[in-house]
Amino acid sequence: MNEIEVEYITKKFGKFTAVDNISLTVKKGEICGFLGPNGAGKTTTIRMLCGLLKPTECKGTVNGLDIMKNFEQIKKRIGYMSQKFSMYSYLTVEENLRFWGNCYDVKGRKLKERSDYLLNKLSLVELKNTKAGILTGGTRQRCALACALVHDPPIVFLDEPTSGADPIARRDFWKLIRELSSENITVLVTTHYLEEAEYCNNIILISGGKMIAKGTPSELKASVEGKIVGKKEITLEDFFIYKTESIYNK
Ligand SMILES: Nc1ncnc2c1ncn2[C@@H]1O[C@H](COP(=O)(O)OP(=O)(O)OP(=O)(O)O)[C@@H](O)[C@H]1O
Ligand SMILES: [Mg+2]
């Protein structure tokens, strides 16, 4: 069974449809990129898949669990790095890890071992006694990732994990994402940096709550070849702009 298997998922806020009948399939260990302009519905979809927001309609599973019925169990099996700053500013890096570990029922020696492993893996050892509130871009994001991984989840949802980080921090963060994938952890990630999306196995492009394309980065680029005047070598950015502008100009 696929780690994420959704035949359809929809979210309405009153009369407004934020996510409109999206389908997606993500295999174990795959990196799935979720792209779309601001307000497209990426965060809303992620929050539904994490069991944090109840869909209006949905047929699908996350880690084999029914999204509509088993959202409480789903929350425990996934890691979520939210788009907003999600750590406690006045707690140190290590205290944040301990706090999130306790929330997921990881305690005692197991929590100490897991924290030490993550501090080491995410190059946070020297910062473990630093208050989270004074961390800068890249280190702050690595700390948030460590918190999302503290209970060793098989799937992680990363909502714009690299926004605001410098190019080197972003490159290093994507190295970590690829390492997670090589450890068979499934990753669903949103980004507005389209050169990063090249690292994804599969990409889903949404706009106005609707899915407008999906495929591997090469498939998506090939789909607009010859359609963009004066462009021989198509980048994902060209594809993104072409597809989203053609939706707006319809
Ligand atoms: N609780 C809510 N009530 C009403 N509307 C909402 C709510 N949450 C989100 N929306 C609306 O749903 C749409 C999708 O929002 P969402 O945050 O999912 O977009 P996004 O693709 O993550 O955008 P961004 O790239 O800016 O993060 C937006 O128009 C937003 O204003
Ligand atoms: Mg968002």
What does this structure look like?
With 250 residues, the protein is of the alpha/beta class. It has nine helices and ten strands. The chain has a single domain, classed as Rossmann fold, CATH 3.40.50. The chain is globular, with a radius of gyration of 18 Å. It starts with a strand and ends with a helix. The model has no long low-confidence stretch (mean pLDDT 93). Adenosine-5'-triphosphate binds at residues 13, 18, 36, 38-44, 83.
* Ligand set: adenosine-5'-triphosphate, magnesium ion
Which architecture would the CATH scheme give at its second level? 3-Layer(aba) Sandwich
How many DSSP H or I helices?
9
On the 0-100 scale, what is the average pLDDT? 93
Structural class: alpha/beta
CATH domain topology: Rossmann fold
State the oligomer: single chain
| Low-confidence residue ranges | none
In percent, how much strand structure appears in the residues?
A: 15-25%
User: Any idea how many domains?
Assistant: 1
CATH class: Alpha Beta
The total beta strand count reads: 10
State the helicity in percent bands: 25-40%
C-alpha Rg (nearest Å) = 18 Å
